[in-house]
C-alpha cells in the first residue's frame, strides 16, 4: 500500500472513540484526518485525544473535505442510510456500523449508491476478521466434529437502567436484535455457508423502554435440518457464546464476539479428543480497518461484500417481523 487511507470519523460514539479510532491510529494502513460531530466540543475533544488536526461541527463538512478517502459511520441506526449515501455521493468509501440499516430495502439503497459511485461499502462486524474464525471454519470443514447439525448463539447484557440510552429509542432502530442479535445471526450464516430458509422469534417488548425488544429468542432454519437457536438481550446477564454441534463433537467459543488478549481461545471436542485452541489475542478492529484499506487499494477482493450485509439485513428484518407478528417467517 503506497499511501495510508485517510479516514473521517462521522460521530463520537463510544465504539468510535474506544475501539475503532484507536485501531485506525495504530494500524499500518490508515490515519484519521478528521472527526465530526453535531456538537463541535465533542469533535474537538476527540480530535485532541487522538492528535487529529481537523474537527468539524457537522457531518456535511466532513463529507465536503477533499482530503478524506473513507468515512467510518458509528451513528445511531436510523442515520446509517442517509450518511452512507451522502458519503458515497461525495466519493468516500464507507465502513458503517452494524446493523447496516433498519430494513433490507434501506440496505439495498445504500449498496446501490456505493456501487454507483464506485466506492467500497462494508458493515463493521469486526469479529469476522479475527483469524480464529478461519480456524473454526477449517475445523468444521475437516470433519473433526462430524456433520454439522446445529448452532447455538447468545449475546446478552444488562443495561436496562440507562433509560436514556439510544438503544431504547424505537424510532432510532433500538432493540436487542439490532444491537446484539445480529452477531449470532451473521455467525451462523458464515459457518453454515448458506442462507436460512425461515425464522421464528419470540421477544419481550418493554413499555419502559419505548417498546423495543429487550430480549429475544429464536430459531433460524437452514436446509438439511440444520438450525441456529439463539437469544439476545439488553436486560439479562452478560454472555457472548457460540456453540457449533456436529454428529461426532462440538466447538464451544466462550467469548465469541468481543475478544481481548487473553480470552480468544475456544474448545474443540471431536473425534481426536478434547483440546483448547489458544487463538491469538489480536485486535479485531485493527484487522477490520486493515482489510478495508486493502480492498480500497485494490489489493484484494472484499471478504464480506455489501451483498452479505444486505442478506444479513433480510434475516434480521425477518426476525423482527416474526417477533412482532408472533409467527414463523419464510425467507425463500
UniProtKB/TrEMBL annotation:
Record's keyword annotation contains Hydrolase: no
Domain Gfo/Idh/MocA-like oxidoreductase N-terminal: 5-122
Domain GFO/IDH/MocA-like oxidoreductase: 135-251
Keywords carried by this UniProt record: Oxidoreductase
Domain of life: Bacteria
Entry's family note: Belongs to the Gfo/Idh/MocA family.
Record-given protein name: Gfo/Idh/MocA family oxidoreductase
Provenance organism: Cohnella hashimotonis
Amino acid at each position: 500500500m503506497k499511501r495510508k487511507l485517510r479516514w473521517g470519523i462521522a460521530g463520537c460514539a463510544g465504539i468510535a472513540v474506544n475501539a475503532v479510532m484507536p485501531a485506525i491510529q495504530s494500524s499500518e494502513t490508515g490515519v484519521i484526518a478528521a472527526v465530526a460531530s453535531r456538537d463541535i466540543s465533542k469533535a474537538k475533544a476527540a480530535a485532541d485525544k487522538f492528535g487529529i488536526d481537523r474537527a468539524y461541527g457537522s457531518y456535511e463538512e466532513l463529507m465536503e473535505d477533499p482530503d478524506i478517502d473513507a468515512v467510518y459511520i458509528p451513528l445511531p441506526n436510523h442515520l446509517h442510510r442517509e450518511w452512507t449515501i451522502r458519503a458515497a455521493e461525495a466519493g468516500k468509501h464507507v465502513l458503517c456500523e452494524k446493523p447496516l440499516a433498519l430494513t433490507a430495502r434501506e440496505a439495498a439503497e445504500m449498496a446501490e449508491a456505493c456501487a454507483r459511485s464506485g466506492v467500497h461499502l462494508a458493515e463493521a462486524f469486526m469479529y469476522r476478521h479475527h483469524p480464529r474464525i478461519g480456524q473454526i471454519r477449517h475445523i468444521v470443514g475437516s470433519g473433526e466434529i462430524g456433520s454439522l447439525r446445529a448452532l447455538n448463539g447468545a449475546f446478552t447484557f444488562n443495561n436496562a437502567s440507562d433509560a436514556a440510552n439510544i438503544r431504547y429509542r424505537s424510532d432510532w432502530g433500538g432493540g436487542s436484535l439490532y444491537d446484539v442479535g445480529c452477531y449470532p445471526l451473521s455467525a451462523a450464516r458464515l459457518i453454515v455457508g448458506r442462507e436460512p430458509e425461515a425464522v421464528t422469534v419470540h421477544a419481550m417488548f418493554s413499555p419502559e423502554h419505548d417498546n423495543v425488544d429487550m430480549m429475544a429468542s429464536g430459531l433460524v432454519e437452514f436446509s438439511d435440518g440444520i438450525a441456529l437457536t439463539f437469544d439476545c438481550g439488553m436486560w439479562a446477564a452478560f454472555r457472548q457464546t457460540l456453540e457449533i454441534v456436529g454428529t461426532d463433537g462440538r466447538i464451544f467459543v466462550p467469548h465469541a464476539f468481543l475478544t481481548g488478549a487473553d480470552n480468544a481461545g475456544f474448545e474443540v471436542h471431536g473425534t481426536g479428543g478434547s483440546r483448547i485452541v489458544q487463538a491469538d489475542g489480536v485486535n479485531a478492529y485493527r484487522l477490520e480497518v486493515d482489510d478495508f484499506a486493502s480492498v480500497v487499494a485494490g489489493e484484494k477482493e472484499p471478504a464480506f461484500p455489501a451483498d452479505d450485509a444486505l442478506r444479513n439485513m433480510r434475516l434480521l428484518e425477518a426476525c423482527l417481523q416474526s417477533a412482532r407478528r408472533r409467527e414463523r417467517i419464510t425467507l425463500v
